[in-house]
Amino acid sequence: MEEEQQKIRIQKIKLDVWALALAFGTIFGLYTLFMGGVAAWLGLGVEFVEFVGKIYPGFKPDFLGSLIGAVWGFTDGFMSGLILGTLYNWFLKRA
């Protein structure tokens, strides 16, 4: 009976779209930089870097390719976070 009398308040929390976009961009960028570096210096994951290089032009298993991949990764992650955060906030308004 007491449970019925208590009102459960659910708070809708809006995302900071720019912060999410920057976080995603940073994570994607650092990941591609790391994978390019590992492929260049240790020879591990070369096939992965070459595969992703088909999507990110210039991303190769060498130093310059790692930096180019990091820029592409940041851009891709930033745009993904921006779209995801915007869609989340849009759906939150309609829920």
Number of helices: 4
Q: Give a short account of the largest sheet.
A: none
- The topology string of helices and strands comes to HHHH
Unreliable sequence segments: none
Apparent shape: elongated
Count of strand segments: 0
- Kindly state the percentage of residues in helix: over 70%
Average residue-wise pLDDT: 93
Structural class label: mainly alpha
Rg over alpha carbons: 20 Å
Roughly what fraction of the amino acids lie in strands?
under 5%
Gap between N and C termini: 28 Å
Keywords:
95 residues; mainly alpha; 4 helices
Structure write-up:
There is one protein chain. The chain is mainly alpha-helical. It has a domain at 23-85. The protein has helices at residues 2-5, 17-41, 46-53, 63-94. Helix 2 packs antiparallel against helix 4. The chain is elongated, with a radius of gyration of 20 Å.
Helix-strand layout with pairing:
Elements: H1 2-5, H2 17-41, H3 46-53, H4 63-94
Helix pairs in contact: 2-4
Put the structure in a nutshell.
This protein has helices at residues 2-5, 17-41, 46-53, 63-94. Helix content is 73%, strand content 0%.
